[in-house]
UniProtKB/TrEMBL annotation:
<keyword id="KW-0325">Glycoprotein</keyword>
<keyword id="KW-1015">Disulfide bond</keyword>
<keyword id="KW-1133">Transmembrane helix</keyword>
<dbReference type="Pfam" id="PF00685">
    <property type="entry name" value="Sulfotransfer_1"/>
</dbReference>
<feature type="region of interest" description="Disordered">
    <location>
        <begin position="47"/>
        <end position="106"/>
    </location>
</feature>
<dbReference type="InterPro" id="IPR000863">
    <property type="entry name" value="Sulfotransferase_dom"/>
</dbReference>
<dbReference type="InterPro" id="IPR027417">
    <property type="entry name" value="P-loop_NTPase"/>
</dbReference>
<feature type="binding site">
    <location>
        <position position="211"/>
    </location>
    <ligand>
        <name>3'-phosphoadenylyl sulfate</name>
    </ligand>
</feature>
<feature type="binding site">
    <location>
        <position position="203"/>
    </location>
    <ligand>
        <name>3'-phosphoadenylyl sulfate</name>
    </ligand>
</feature>
<feature type="compositionally biased region" description="Basic and acidic residues">
    <location>
        <begin position="81"/>
        <end position="90"/>
    </location>
</feature>
<keyword id="KW-0808">Transferase</keyword>
<feature type="disulfide bond">
    <location>
        <begin position="305"/>
        <end position="330"/>
    </location>
</feature>
<keyword id="KW-0472">Membrane</keyword>
<feature type="compositionally biased region" description="Polar residues">
    <location>
        <begin position="68"/>
        <end position="80"/>
    </location>
</feature>
<feature type="domain" description="Sulfotransferase">
    <location>
        <begin position="113"/>
        <end position="287"/>
    </location>
</feature>
<feature type="compositionally biased region" description="Basic and acidic residues">
    <location>
        <begin position="57"/>
        <end position="66"/>
    </location>
</feature>
<dbReference type="InterPro" id="IPR037359">
    <property type="entry name" value="NST/OST"/>
</dbReference>
């Protein structure tokens, strides 16, 4: 095209066309470059967790919770909630996964995802992906591909090449917990497959805020207190980013059919894994992978837990590391579930009234309520 046009460049009208084309291309390139640099800078800014001295019971229990998250962030598969080195992190090579054992080798191939876990960060998306991976009709990508955010220019065939092998009847699921907060990513997902099944995980916003605070500040020697990290006024971006799920979900609902969007809670995943698994199976049109008898109610933990005597328990343990307590078969533990840092009462009340507004928006949007923090619990 370019050389064809170059031959007639002396002709006035055509010269203008060529110029316009070049200008548009330059603009588009500049935009893409800008976007990439922006996302790269954002990922470079992402914090890395470190140790926190255990000085009080409350801090200790909070540390347990954040360590669980930190372990998850640095597990051997390279999956992290927060990107650290941007695009170079994803290698070209694909390592064989346990999912590949699920079907006969003859008809295995790599398939593009038909379901995405899109968010939210620090809401146990890795554990949800692990639970889903226990289903025989599901294969899950071992790492966050960040395809619709950072790696989009690599193209669909790159994305496919990064997926695990699967049988034709199996569904591939990918998880990147910050797709949901990027409108660009949501647009790209819609363009990729407008019928994509979208799963989002939310959790008690105040507990998410506190857990994120620990994760983001534990390495800092001059560690700010919770209230200062939030900002003097409750309505700072640092707070809203972690307590407002409704805005991001509205952006999802504006694009995708409601029947293709499933919103689950970390608390339900933790205390009712069987119910959550069934909800995902129904959502994806799959047969039940476990029976109710594979689970047992644990009074002490106040949770439904895997029966440790079932034959698939070793597989369960592998899939749900590190959140599974391998002794009890429960996800998380009562200690982390009840932990809170000290928060100034006045600040907390302001926070709670703000959270209430955003929870209301969320519950209206998804037509479902979660039993989250009230003042008496803290
Ligand atoms: C798009 O996603 C839906 C829902 O998972 C799936 O049934 C369909 O096959 C997908 N389309 C393509 C072209 O992959
Ligand atoms: C259970 O987990 C602990 C660490 O939490 C580990 O040391 C131990 O080997 C595990 N036990 C089994 C049977 O996997």
């Amino acid at each position: 095209m370019a050389t064809l046009k170059a031959t007639s460049v002396l002709r006035g009208a055509k010269a203008v066309k060529v110029l316009l084309g070049v200008l548009l291309a330059a603009l588009a390139f500049g935009f893409l470059l800008n976007l990439t640099i922006h996302e790269l800078t954002k990922s470079l800014k992402a914090p890395t967790p470190s140790r926190l001295p255990a000085s009080s019971y409350k801090e200790r229990s909070l540390r347990l919770e954040s360590e669980a998250t930190a372990n998850k962030n640095s597990d051997s598969t390279g999956s992290r909630e927060q990107p650290k080195r941007g695009r170079t992190e994803i290698e070209e090579s694909v390592s064989p996964t346990k999912d590949e054992d699920k079907a006969k080798p003859s008809n295995l191939r790599r398939q593009l995802p038909k379901c995405l876990i899109v968010g939210f960060t620090n809401c146990w998306t890795l554990t949800l992906s692990g639970l889903l991976s226990l289903h025989p009709d599901i294969v899950t990508a071992e790492r966050e591909m960040r395809y619709f955010t950072l790696n989009y220019q690599r193209g669909n065939e790159w994305y496919r090449s990064m997926m695990p092998l699967s049988a034709p009847s199996q569904i591939t699921v990918e998880r990147t917990p910050n797709y949901i907060t990027s409108n660009t990513a949501l647009d790209r997902i819609y363009e990729f497959n407008s019928s994509m099944k979208i799963i989002a995980l939310v959790r008690d916003p105040i507990l998410r805020l506190m857990s994120t605070y620990v994760l983001h500040t534990r390495r800092k020697p001059d560690r700010p207190i919770f209230e200062h990290w939030c900002g003097v006024h409750v309505k700072t971006r640092n707070v809203l980013r972690y307590i407002d799920y409704a805005t991001a979900l509205q952006n999802v609902m504006a694009r995708f059919r409601k029947t293709n969007v499933l919103v689950l809670s970390k608390e339900d995943l933790e205390t009712k894994p069987y119910t959550v698994l069934r909800a995902m199976e129904t959502f994806l049109g799959l047969k039940p992978a476990f029976s109710k008898d594979d689970f047992v109610y644990n009074k002490e933990e106040g949770a439904t837990c895997f029966r440790t005597t079932i034959s698939r328990y070793p597989e369960v343990k592998r899939a749900l590391v590190p959140e599974l307590d391998n002794r009890t078969g429960c996800l998380g533990s009562s200690l982390t579930r009840r932990s809170h840092p000290n928060i100034n009462q006045e600040f907390l009340e302001k926070l709670l009234s703000l959270v209430k507004i955003h929870n209301g928006r969320l519950f209206d949007l998804i037509n479902k309520k979660f039993d989250w923090t009230n003042l008496d619990d803290l």
